[in-house]
Amino acid sequence: MATTRLRFAMIGFIVGVLIVYFMKDAPISTGLRIAAPVYLFGVGIIIDGIVLRIKERKGKDD
Fold first, then answer.
1. Chain centroid to CA 13: how far?
2. CB within 10 Å: which end of the chain, N or C, has fewer?
3. E strands, 5-52, in order
4. How many CA atoms lie within 13 A of 23 on its CB side?
5. How far apart are CA 10 and CA 24, in angstroms?
6. DSSP 29
7. Helix or strand (DSSP H, E) at 14
8. Buried/exposed code over 27-41 (b: 16+ C-beta within 10 A; e: otherwise)
9. Residue 23: which of 36, 11, 10 has the closest Cα?
10. Which DSSP category does 27 fall into?
């Protein structure tokens, strides 16, 4: 896993953990709160892919 990919994935995971911690009294299901870190881990990887594609396109235009 590339450094940037890992960075975005870890940021997503940490945000997911914070959601679990701060929303423990929210009226959403426990399963959704517990799965939030895993979901946001995947979102971080998707965001990294988007950023890499944008950087590639800027490099080709030069």
1. 6
2. C
3. none
4. 18
5. 21
6. -
7. helix 3-22
8. eeeeeebeebbeebb
9. 36
10. S
List for the chain the helix, strand, coil content (%; round to 5). 85, 0, 15
Residue 2 amino acid letter: A
Per-residue confidence (pLDDT) for residue 55, from 0 to 100: 85
Give the tens place of pLDDT for each residue, 2-48: 666 788 888 888 988 888 888 877 777 878 888 888 998 988 888 88
Q: Per the confidence metrics, is the pTM higher than 0.85?
A: no
CA 30 – CA 23 distance, rounded (Å): 10
Residues ≥6 apart with Cβ < 8 Å to 13: 37, 38, 40, 41, 44
Token pair recorded at residue 33: 């709160």
